[in-house]
């Protein structure tokens, strides 16, 4: 599957911690039951989750960002801090997307013979 909802990827997330909801600037917010959109390598500007049912918003964890980009649980990202790991997740080609692309290339090359 090349797209999934946020709930498909991360399950039923815990309630938000005491994080500020109103922030300066522009940030994108994922809806729990909508298809997940790309996690980029930029700071935290596109990594907020709208919990639904009026429960507020919160930031995704690094592990949740990795799941949204289809990395398997426990994938070893380098770096000591979340910023370094998020940059790797955002700069990477999602594994499921790479798998689908390479399968299409394989099939095209096989048909060209």
Describe the structure.
The chain has 113 residues and is mainly alpha-helical. It has four helices and three strands. The longest helix has 17 residues. It is globular and about 55 Å long.
Total strands: the figure is 3
Round the Cα radius of gyration to an integer and report it: 16 Å
Q: Give the overall form.
A: globular
Strand order of the largest sheet: 1-2-3
Portion in strands: 5-15%
Which structural class do the helices and strands define?
mainly alpha
Uncertain residue ranges? none
Number of helices: 4
CATH top level is Alpha Beta
In CATH terms, what is the fold-level topology?
Answer: DNA Methylase, Chain A, domain 2
Distance between the amino and carboxyl termini: 28 Å
Major β-sheet, in short? 3 strands, mixed
CATH architecture label name = Alpha-Beta Complex
H and E string? HEEEHHH
Mean pLDDT: 80
What's the topology here?
Layout: H1 6-10, E1 29-31, E2 48-50, E3 57-59, H2 62-68, H3 82-91, H4 95-111
Parallel strand pairs: 1-2
Antiparallel strand pairs: 2-3
In short:
The chain has 113 residues and is mainly alpha-helical. The chain contains 4 helices and 3 strands, in the order H-E-E-E-H-H-H.
Which features does this protein show?
DNA Methylase, Chain A, domain 2, 3-stranded mixed β-sheet
């Amino acid at each position: 599957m090349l797209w999934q909802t946020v709930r498909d990827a991360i399950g039923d997330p815990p309630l938000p911690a005491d994080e500020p909801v109103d922030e300066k600037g522009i940030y994108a917010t994922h809806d729990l039951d909508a298809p997940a959109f790309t996690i980029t390598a930029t700071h935290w500007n596109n990594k907020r989750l709208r919990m639904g049912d009026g429960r507020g918003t919160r930031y995704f964890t690094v592990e949740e960002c990795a799941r949204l980009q289809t990395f398997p649980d426990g994938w070893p990202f380098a770096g000591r801090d979340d910023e370094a790991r998020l940059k790797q997740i955002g700069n990477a080609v999602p594994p499921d997307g790479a798998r689908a692309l390479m399968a299409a290339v394989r099939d095209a090359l096989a048909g060209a013979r």
